[in-house]
């Protein structure tokens, strides 16, 4: 779990690189269902297009259906998003641990609001971390940079408020069940060593497994 812009994608990618665990993203699963025009895909499409949540029943059936046949560890991303989803998952495919990336809202807002885009090429700059040579201007073409609506402070603030409203009860659910693990920090690089260390107490890192195989 983690708010938009918390580095959930980065941390997930690093986890699957270092540990034998299958990464399942609910958004990706839904998009592939839509592409394949499955019954779940057809019923989910209108909600996704509207930017609202897909009904719990559709989501639960879909995700449980993906998890059931798996013979390996899994890392769920994007699910559960509501308490009924968390309850259904807990009852049908119990989770061992829920990792929450606890990044202060101000850090996320500062990181995103510094992004400037060269619309024709998609090149992205950041006023602090990767500034253009001339402020407000694309390095390659000299054309003006724009700030995408998604990267504006008001938009990020609105998205974060919606996230907390929806997600706090899910975090409380897992905290009450004693399986919520919080990782606090400002950047993925700061959080990652702690996630890696914690994951290593649950699954052997890939390298170690390979090393043992040769000994
Ligand atoms: P994402 O890629 O995680 O942002 O998901 C894209 C869209 O899929 C969301 O805006 C929702 O409409 C839908 N979605 C993904 N996961 C869930 C979920 N757990 N519950 C309900 N809808 C979801």
Description of the molecule:
The chain has 215 residues and is α/β, with parallel strands linked by helices. The chain has a domain at 8-21 and 73-199: Rossmann fold (3-Layer(aba) Sandwich). It has 9 helices and 6 strands, in the order H-E-H-H-H-E-H-E-H-E-E-H-E-H-H. The chain has helices at 8-18, 26-35, 39-50, 56-67, 83-92, 105-113, 153-176, 188-200, 206-214; strands spanning 22-25, 74-77, 98-102, 115-118, 123-126, 180-184. A hairpin with a 4-residue loop joins strand 4 and strand 5. The radius of gyration is 20 Å and the shape is globular. The model has no long low-confidence stretch (mean pLDDT 92). The structure holds adenosine monophosphate. Adenosine monophosphate (AMP) is lined by residues 26-27, 30, 47-48, 51, 53-54, 59, 78-81, 85.
Task: For the structure shown, list the relevant keywords.
binds adenosine monophosphate; 215 residues; Rossmann fold; single chain; 51% helix; two-stranded parallel sheet; alpha/beta
């Amino acid at each position: 779990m983690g708010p938009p812009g918390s580095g959930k994608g980065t941390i997930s990618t690093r986890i699957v690189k270092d540990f034998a665990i299958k990464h399942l993203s609910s958004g990706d699963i839904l998009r592939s269902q839509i592409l394949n025009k499955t019954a779940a895909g057809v019923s989910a499409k209108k909600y996704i297009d509207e930017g609202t949540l897909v009904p719990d029943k559709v989501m639960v059936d879909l995700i449980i259906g993906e998890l059931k046949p798996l013979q390996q560890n899994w890392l769920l991303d994007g699910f559960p998003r509501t308490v009924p989803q968390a309850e259904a998952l807990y009852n049908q495919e119990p989770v061992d641990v829920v990792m929450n990336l606890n990044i202060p809202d101000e850090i996320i807002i500062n990181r995103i609001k510094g992004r400037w885009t060269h619309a024709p090429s998609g090149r992205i700059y950041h006023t602090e971390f990767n500034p253009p040579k001339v402020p407000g201007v694309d390095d390659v073409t000299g054309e003006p940079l724009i700030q995408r609506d998604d990267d504006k402070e008001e938009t990020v603030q609105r998205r974060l408020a919606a996230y907390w409203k929806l997600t706090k009860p899910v975090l409380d659910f897992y905290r009450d069940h004693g399986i919520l693990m919080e990782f606090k920090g400002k950047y993925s690089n700061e959080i990652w060593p702690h996630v890696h260390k914690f994951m290593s107490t649950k699954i052997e890192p890939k390298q170690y497994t390979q090393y043992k195989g040769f000994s």
